[in-house]
């Protein structure tokens, strides 16, 4: 069971309470597709991903980025039971979407960078530690049902 | 390991010239952040009294690290030869587990994003990420 301090809980809920999903979601996914281009393999149905400009302007990417970010809401609401909360999503990513779980870590890193850019110096070391711990738990839960 | 394209090198050089003015402050931030977010890295600094961001030792060492990155930027065309001394230092004297190079690279990227959010675009990010991976590789050369 993951132990969360009061400070960590407050940091995580705080970040998501003040988050613009429409802004950060697309940015995080766009960054992931550009910085780690092999992640594009899962989005062949999205249309034009030929270059950075195309990726940035692609409405399917933007919509999906928002969807993925909202997917984290469940974890924020159930911080004491993220593993169970994401069991179904894990099965989906494994059995239906066939996503290599290493990609979860890559997207998580890109999300961290976007949050850091947004919060600036407010993204203190303690904030970074809590946020990365949260994402690590999410990433682990999403990979849990793979076999 | 992907090699750096001409575009990557150009991007890194341009970005570094933009950010190097704040190198000292960023270096202290990178190091102090790493010590908090990845506490296992503290094991390399057990001989320091104060590991807080305001510590003189942290600030000085952050500056040293950034100078190293600057040196790597200057010697980008042959990192293995250019960073030979640093590799020997990390391998034989410091004996830093090379897994930590990824950790410090990540924190460098985070601090770039915090300090230069507009300039640290995805395109700059990918070139810097590749560059830092090459630097880590060069630093690991003399390990075994």
Automatic annotation (TrEMBL), chain A:
MF annotations from Gene Ontology: haptoglobin binding; heme binding; metal ion binding; organic acid binding; oxygen binding; oxygen carrier activity; peroxidase activity
InterPro entries on file: Globin, Globin-like_sf, Globin/Proto, Hemoglobin_b, Hemoglobin_oxygen_transport
Listed Gene3D superfamilies: Globins
PROSITE patterns in the cross-refs: GLOBIN (PS01033)
GO cellular component: blood microparticle; haptoglobin-hemoglobin complex; hemoglobin complex
Source organism superkingdom: Eukaryota
Keyword terms: Heme, Iron, Metal-binding, Oxygen transport, Transport
Keyword field contains Heme: yes
Domain Globin: 3-147
Biological process terms in GO annotation: hydrogen peroxide catabolic process
Any Pfam family the entry gives: Globin
The family this protein is said to belong to: Belongs to the globin family.
Protein name listed in UniProt: Hemoglobin beta embryonic-2 isoform X2
From TrEMBL, chain B:
PROSITE patterns: GLOBIN
GO biological process, one term: hydrogen peroxide catabolic process
Protein name: Hemoglobin subunit alpha-2-like
Organism: Betta splendens (Siamese fighting fish)
Domain Globin: 3-144
GO cellular component: a single term: blood microparticle
Family: Belongs to the globin family.
Keywords (A to Z) from UniProt: Heme, Iron, Metal-binding, Oxygen transport, Transport
Gene Ontology molecular-function annotations: haptoglobin binding; heme binding; metal ion binding; organic acid binding; oxygen binding; oxygen carrier activity; peroxidase activity
InterPro entries for the chain: Globin, Globin-like_sf, Globin/Proto, Hemoglobin_a-typ, Hemoglobin_oxygen_transport
